[in-house]
Structure formats: C-alpha cells, structure tokens
Amino acid sequence: MEQFRHSHSLGQNFLTDGNLLSAIVTDAGVTAGDTVVEVGAGMGALTRRLAESGARVFAFEIDGRLAEYLRPLEEEYPNLTVIMGDFMKADMSGLFEGKYKAVANLPYYITTPVLFHFLDDDRCTGATVMVQKEVADRISAPPGGKDYGVLSVSLRLSGRAERTRTVGRQMFDPPPKVDSAVVRITKTEPIGDKEGVMKVVRAAFAMRRKTLLNCLCSAGYNKESATAAITGIGRDLSVRGERLSPEEFSALAKFLQ
C-alpha cells in the first residue's frame, strides 16, 4: 500500500496517531463481548484497535482496494469481519443478532445520512464518530446558539451527544483542510413522534431570521393554530425557532396536530 492514492471523492484521510486511535476505542466504550460496526475502515488502523479490544467487529469499507488490503487482518483477528460495500445499502440483519455499537471516521459528505441511519436502527445503542469540527459544533450545540439547527434537534430527539476530544488536522494522512472532533452519541428514548416533530423543526429553521410564527405560516400551517401552539408551550409570539429545545418542538408538534 505504499503507492496507495487517496480518493478525494471518498473523503479519504487516515488517522496516524496510535494514542488517539486507542482513545477513540475508549471513548466508544468498546469492550470484549460487544458487537461493533465500523464504517469506513480505511487502512485498518482503528479497525485493528477495535479488534484488539476483543469485541466482535464488522468493518465496512466501500473502496475495494482498501477492503482487499484489510483481508489479512481477518486471519490475525478471528473476531473481525471485513465487508466490502456501501454500508448505507447493506442488510445487517443476517450478519449478527442483538445490539451493536457504531464507530466511524466519517467524511463530510456522508456524515448526516450515516448518523441518521444509526439513530433509526433500534439495534444500535450508540455511535462514536469522527467528524469535521464544524459538524461536531452543530451536533452538540445548545438551543439559542448560532450552530443550533435541524441537525442538533434531530439528533437529540433520540440521542444524547457529547464531544469527547478535538483532533488536529496534522493527525491525518493526508492532512485535511479542517480540524475534526470525536463525538459520542448515546441512544435515548425518543422524544415524541420523530417524523411529525421533524416536519415542524424543518419549518422552524427554514428562515432563521424570521419568527417561529412566520416560519410556520410560510410552511403552510394555519396562523390561528400556529399562534395557539406557540402560546400553548409557554412561548411568546416573537420567539424564533432556534430558541426552542427538542422537548418544546415535540410539544409544539402535538399542538399542531
């Protein structure tokens, strides 16, 4: 693999710091007896650390060149299975039974769909992911902040997110143009009907500079109903959507039904 050429289209930037790799496994809470799904195994640096924990590891890699490079690891670690293919299109029901933990070093272009895939899968208990720092800011942003938005709310409707560490770009090969961060998401009991709540959330953030009432009306909600819903959750009609917590969005959606 000395002559391996990284694929820019696949967002390939590989971690090179051994201490950091071990720390990510610790952050994810991976121990012997766990089942772990890794997305984007790359050259196997994190894959190896996961396998060394004693967990049953299923490592997905979409790049066929890398998947073949990883095959020898299966002989070294009987608890490791390398799967070449697109994780988003994979049927995992036949791979293993029971719950699993997710671990991934995610390129920007697939971060959101992969996270939602994990959150929507009842078998996934949580995910520890490496993402661009600005995405981590959005994931962990509190209500009212400039980074708080649709992604922040949607994740908190079914999970609790915390940033465990910031990772400088120099720790990757090749170095990306931005810093990254590790985020641990623990699944929780869903807050309300997610589909119904997200409809309201998307409407609320469609025009951030406008009030929540104007956003809801622009999205097709009846003004009288929207007014009653906003006051019903104890908010003033001048409030903007970015001020509402996930719990308030859930309550708002119930009123609007």
Which key features would you list for this structure?
single chain; 257 residues; alpha/beta; Rossmann fold; Helicase, Ruva Protein, domain 3; 7-stranded mixed beta sheet; two-stranded antiparallel ribbon
Walk me through what this model shows.
The protein is built from ten helices and nine strands. The chain has 257 residues and is of the alpha/beta class. The chain has two domains: 14-187, 3-Layer(aba) Sandwich (Rossmann fold), CATH 3.40.50; 194-256, rRNA adenine dimethylase, C-terminal domain (Helicase, Ruva Protein, domain 3, Orthogonal Bundle). The radius of gyration is 20 Å and the shape is elongated. The N and C termini lie far apart (57 Å). Residues 6-11 have low confidence and may be disordered.
Summarize it.
The chain has 257 residues and is α/β, with parallel strands linked by helices. The protein is built from ten helices and nine strands.
Per CATH, the superfamily of the largest domain is Vaccinia Virus protein VP39
The first-level CATH class name of the largest domain: Alpha Beta
Query: Proportion of β residues?
Result: 15-25%
Task: Detail the poorly predicted runs.
Answer: 6-11
Shape field? elongated
What topology, given as strand order, has the largest sheet?
A: 4-3-2-5-6-9-7
Number of strands: 9
Fold blueprint:
Blueprint: E1 14-15, H1 18-27, E2 35-39, H2 45-52, E3 56-61, H3 64-76, E4 80-84, E5 100-105, H4 111-120, E6 124-132, H5 133-140, H6 150-156, E7 159-167, E8 172-173, E9 180-187, H7 194-204, H8 212-218, H9 223-232, H10 246-256
Parallel strand pairs: 2-3, 2-5, 3-4, 5-6
Antiparallel strand pairs: 1-8, 6-9, 7-9
